[in-house]
Amino acid sequence: MVGTGGIGTGKIYLLEGNQNLGRNESRMGHLLSVKDFCKLHIIFHYTAVLLKDLNVNTQIYPIGAVGDDHAAKELLTIMKNAGMNMKYVKIIKNTPTLHSICFQYPDHSGGNITESQSASSLVTAERMIDTATILQENKSLVLSVPEVPLPSRIELINLGFRNQAYVLASFVSDEIDTIKKQGLLEKINLLSVNLDEAAALANVSRDDSIEEIANNCIKVVAQINPEIKLCITCGSQGIYGYDQGEVKFLPILNVPVENTAGAGDAMLSGIMLGLILGFPFIDNKAQTCLRLGRLISAMSVISPDTINFNINLRSLKQFQKNQGEDIL
């Protein structure tokens, strides 16, 4: 597994009031004492921990960069202990590690503001090429997610495509036009998006119903790449999966929610794990990538931190039993 994306930390503020932040508004909020992490780390963490518990011999290589600060030292230790190979994570001097300020509404939805001049912003396309030998010599899964420059992520997608790797990707809404124009959807095996990104792909209003957004997104993406698999996360409203003409909707599992930040990343982590274990993406069976993703995502939100460090194979099996699931 080779992947690039953000590696960093963050702070989370709980806002007062559920109304959306206004452009010129000042809002009161409470700084939560939780640990926040960035995309690539979250996604690879669960996969690394669970693969190790399952005794599946897979090397996991994050590609990224951190600063030479205290946050970086802690992150590198956590990632290494989880089972990741840190060979392609560079330490850049006199540069801060990626940091985000997240905001959460009382209904547990929210967003974030991420530092654009961090070590992650200096991850170049050349860094992707360093992993070419791994992709050439091994059956590989490639992951490309935000918080490093888009050209670098595109390079990894192209590299994975040329070497017949299984390519998974996600993009923020502002990147969708570029992705379409550069023909990248044809090179991606599995695309994971939230409702905002799905609306951007479909060129429809975010105010449309989730069914309209999902169906239009699926129609547009499938016309471009009929073989693509698609995961659309709809927050508390559920998850859509699409694969070769079949659409599957799963409601969320009923759990006590502490923090939804990182839930979509946990979802993608579970999907990746399912792919490695040979599960079908969507099906009427209990063992599918989509159901495993939903399970890990549901367990992730019961933790106040954006990585639930209590998740391992034993705890996940107990959690699935409590939820009436039979996946692992």
Describe the structure.
It is a single chain. The chain has a 9-stranded mixed sheet, with helices on both faces. Strands 2, 3, 4, 7 and 8 form a 5-stranded mixed sheet that branches. The longest helix is centred in the N-terminal third of the chain and has 15 residues, at 39-53. It has helices at 39-53, 70-82, 125-129, 132-137, 150-162, 176-181, 195-202, 210-224, 263-276, 289-300, 313-322; strands at 2-4, 8-15, 29-31, 36-37, 61-67, 89-92, 98-104, 110-114, 141-144, 166-169, 190-194, 229-233, 239-243, 246-250. The chain has one domain: Ribokinase (UDP-N-acetylmuramoyl-L-alanine:D-glutamate ligase, 3-Layer(aba) Sandwich), CATH 3.40.1190. The protein has 11 helices and 14 strands. β7 and β8 (110-114) form a beta hairpin. The protein is globular and about 45 Å long. With 328 residues, it is α/β, with parallel strands linked by helices.
Percent strand equals 15-25%
Structural class: alpha/beta
- Major sheet: size, sense and barrel closure? 9 strands, mixed
Instruction: Give the spatial strand order of the biggest sheet.
Output: 6-5-1-9-10-11-12-13-14
Q: Report the C-alpha radius of gyration, rounded.
A: 19 Å
Kindly state the number of beta strands.
14
CATH homologous superfamily caption:
Ribokinase
Helix content: 25-40%
What's the N-to-C terminus distance? Answer: 21 Å
State the name of the first-level CATH class. Alpha Beta
Succession of helices and strands: EEEEHEHEEEHHEHEHEHHEEEHHH
- What's the number of structural domains? 1
Summarize, please.
The chain is an alpha/beta fold and 328 residues long. 36% of the residues lie in helices and 20% in strands.
